[in-house]
Design a protein that fits this description.
By secondary structure, the protein is mainly alpha-helical. About 75% of the residues lie in helices and about 0% in strands.
Length: about 325
């Protein structure tokens, strides 16, 4: 893209793409420079504006209220299509801060617009998974079940894809017996719908989690590694964390440390769950001051999170413990 930029220095797309590249390398200042150039050269798609907004927030260490204020400015006079994009970005931001009730509200707004603009199938495939997971983390399993079961009325062969949402939901809520029962059904449903390849890394992560619960730790390690070979991004953070935790159970500190290093290299460095788990690891090997730094990072992100969240409760408890020492 730098070569392309040399040939076409007035290309907003090239600057936008380089901005995205630097953003995902956590170089928010360099990303900002390219996003600004893209904007000055005429970039105006809503997806660009939302991405630029998020980078600005990372660069300036915004709190959630600042993000919401800027998102709401984008919503003023936004088209139906642009409003869907904005609600998608807002729900990701509220989720990142542990505001699950807000996330549910914004996802329902997104879902309503998708139903109007693209129909039930696209609405289900784009929103219902996130909604079911959000309800699950709030402990509202009956609402999650209703959201999942909406998939039963989708046209064949998509009418069985609800099994995939069951798999995601049972894994995320640690319902391992139900996960074990539904895993193969969900894989078969995805195969029938021609979607199996989209979820292979998640299948492997689930198999790793089941192996871990069965104390088949070497199998768990292999499954998590295979999953990470397919996808090393933030989307696969669970494989990083559960692989590190498996090494921790085996008292393999060096490999656990290496997995955390890779997680920080390839995923967001300010993720509350990642910082919490790394703080626990550091405490376990006696690096108390460093552990306190990371639990503070997790706390700063989740200090106003919904109290229903188990992760929020764990972070608050550990933060208090570490600061009483």
């Amino acid at each position: 893209y730098n070569k392309y930029l040399d040939l076409f220095p007035e290309s907003p797309k090239a600057h936008e793409t380089l901005g995205d590249f630097y953003h995902y390398q956590f170089d928010y200042q360099k990303a900002d420079e390219h996003y600004l150039q893209a904007e000055m050269l005429g970039a105006k798609r809503m997806a660009f504006k939302a991405g630029y907004l998020v980078n600005t927030g990372k660069l300036n260490k915004w709190n959630l209220d600042s993000y919401l204020e800027e998102y709401n400015k984008l919503l003023i006079d936004a088209s139906l299509e642009d409003s869907m994009i904005i609600y998608d970005w807002i729900s990701s931001t509220t989720l990142d801060h542990g505001k699950m009730n807000l996330t549910v509200d914004y996802l329902h707004k997104y879902k309503k617009l998708l139903n109007i603009n693209r129909g039930l199938v696209m609405s289900y495939l784009n929103v219902n998974l996130d909604l079911a997971m959000a309800y699950g983390r709030l402990g509202e399993f009956e609402k999650a079940r209703l959201i999942i079961d909406e998939g039963k009325v989708l046209p064949v062969p998509l009418d069985k894809v609800y099994h995939s949402l069951e798999r995601f939901f049972y894994e995320d809520t640690n319902q391992f017996d139900k996960l074990r029962d539904v895993l193969q059904h969900s894989i078969d449903a995805e195969h029938s719908a021609g979607m199996e390849e989209l979820f292979i890394r998640e299948h492997l992560m689930c198999k790793g989690r089941l192996s871990f619960e069965e104390k088949q730790y070497n199998n768990a390690i292999n499954f998590f590694k295979q999953s990470l070979d397919i996808d090393r991004t933030l989307s696969n953070l669970k494989s990083y964390i559960y692989l590190a935790k498996t090494y921790m159970v085996l008292n393999n500190q060096s490999d656990a440390e290496e997995i955390f290093r890779l997680a920080y290299k390839y995923t967001y460095q300010d993720d509350a769950w990642l910082n919490y788990e790394y703080a626990i690891f550091l405490e376990g090997i006696g690096e108390i001051d460093k552990s306190r730094d990371y639990i503070t990072k997790a706390y700063n992100k989740y200090k106003d999170a919904d109290h229903e969240l188990e992760l929020a409760q764990n972070i608050w408890k550990k933060y208090k413990e570490m600061n009483l020492r």
